[in-house]
Amino acid sequence: MLSTNRLLVVLLALPDTLAATVVLRNQCHAETWLHTVYFECHTHTIESLSVDVAHPISPSPQPLLFDLPWPWTHPPTCTPPLPEIPTGLCIFVNSNFADGRGIGIVTTPALAGHVASLPAFRSPQKSREGSLNVNVHSRLWRTEEIERKGIGSLAARDLEPDTEMLKYTPAFMAYLEHTLPTLEREALWRTALLQLPQETRDSFLALSYVHKDKRVRVQAIVQANTFQLDIDGVNHLAVFPETSRLNHDCAPNAQYVVDAEMLTHTVRTTRRVREGEELGIAYTSPMEKAEVRRDKMREGFGFVCQCARCVNSERSDSVLNTIHSLEAHLNDWTPSSLATPAMADQLIALYEQEELQGFLDVPFGHRALAANAVGDVEGARDWARKAGREVMGKDGRGAVAVGVWEEVVRDADGHWSYGRRVGRG
């Protein structure tokens, strides 16, 4: 039996077509952070269900209708209809996907059809665009055992800011639901994994996990290594084994973006990284107080964060208080607002002081609007371009904020912020 009644899954949320969007109060653009959701953990199960062998729940009762060429290499295995999912869930596997890497997906037939229509399946050559080949080791990083952290990723040589290091497709994806009993979900997911190529399956099973109960090993691996991926408006869990080797840091030197059309997870550096330095990403919002961040790491991943910002939490929290105060002023568009471009410059400096270069879209956006508010059109356009680039590197090209900053670039003097604070430059 599991020791708790709920199996925690920590999700990294992305905006818009990629995932849920969190809009700060009175904020003119969106911010997104890690979200926490829970699987209900049922302690009862069906005696005939073998979770060790992952016996299929039932074969698909009838041919599944697709308007596209059938992309799956194994006959789908499906659950009966579920209370929240009338069509039930099925296993869809393409062992040839991404040049033989393969992909296992647990989702509904309709959503599987949507996945099959994505460019990742229809135009896989597009995944080769950019500085990295997908699913090919760049030799810019290496993994090794790190004291008190387990396996982590280190820079294999000096890396400049904005260097793409990893670009991979998921090995496994699953519809996020709260309906299946835990052991039935485990059986379903294990069946999908058993149909993957051996190398891909082994890379998944080698990942770290929190819960020690072997009966739910696959779910425990997903819990500790999942990213959130939006498929036609429905949240799915996605595991990218290689990128899962990046440990957490509250002042990360790397940032990632998930492309929901190409099904790729790309990681880039956000500042200069020296050879041998550990590479890290933020598992939770670095803009929250240290106690909140550490609680999330403890509850979601089973460790206490010992990064510099958490260890020196009094200083870090004091800086965060100043950041939040500046953002409140910059978000104030009343006639009595005290906001100025200099205040936005101070905000940018504090983000950089806290080594939050991967999240500069927020202060860059404030700087663009602060410039526009005092009639500095060219300054507004320049900062809006910077903000847009940062958004795309964090939230993807489909993010709402990309359009916000493109609007400023296109028509700064027609934007609602133009001239709102004239005389305060």
UniProtKB/TrEMBL annotation:
Keyword set includes Signal: yes
Database matches in InterPro entries: SET_dom, SET_dom_sf, SET_domain_protein
A Pfam family hit: SET
Gene3D superfamilies in UniProt: SET domain
Record keywords: Signal
UniProt superkingdom: Eukaryota
UniProt keyword Signal present: yes
SET domain residues: 139-284
Signal sequence annotation: 1-19
Record-linked PANTHER family: SET DOMAIN-CONTAINING PROTEIN (PTHR47332:SF6), SET DOMAIN-CONTAINING PROTEIN 5 (PTHR47332)
UniProt protein name: SET domain-containing protein
